[in-house]
Amino acid sequence: MMAPIxxxxxxxxxxxxxxxxxxxxxxxxxxxGVIFVLIGERVGLSGNLPVTALELLLAVVLPLFMVSLxxxxxxxxFKDGTMKNALKLPLSRETLFIGKILAGWTxxxxxxxxxxxxxxxxSIVLKGMSALSTFGMTMAEVGGAILFxxxxxxxxxxxxxxxxxxxxxxxxxxxxxxxxxxxxxxxxQLNRFFLTDFTDWxxxxxxxxxxxxxxxxxxxxxxxYIMGIITGLLAFQKKEV
Length: 241
Prior knowledge:
About 80% of the residues lie in helices and about 0% in strands. The protein is mostly helical.
């Protein structure tokens, strides 16, 4: 079972690379990382530069990148008819969906790493290698950012499949994101139930050792993952070519 999924994921990832959008997003992410290295100290970004860059970008920029990526992950193939070729393969729709969503999730992870790598290398060049404990915290932040961004890809894909349009799905995803952000701003206690505050579920665990404060946001993130995958799969199964 795993072999066909892994093969399909690799093929779908290669397909994404052949398209223009992922290349643009990866290039922009890398350039943004380089800019952080060049101007970080000048604008007062002291401390752990890779973590600071990720946390700032996770406020707006990376979520927009993920919504852009996820909103056109599958629905575009239905609209241009290329999904017919995939459906001719001796694979179930469930397997096709899982392979495609894993490819999108991996692409989202690569975008996060495209920001992290230049800031991490630049930080080593400018300040030297950090302590082992700091390095561990940094990698935990990167892993959390990847999980967070992967969730946005999953949800954006589900919305676009149900709306039937990548453009509409992207607009709906952005509006929902902004709405949650505004509600969370005026009602901070609700932030843990939304997807707009990356640090709300990760920082209590990493920096205060308070697992209890992270449990509720982690459970909601897991629930959002499950809902995004199930609703996306239902829409994928109902779609006609």
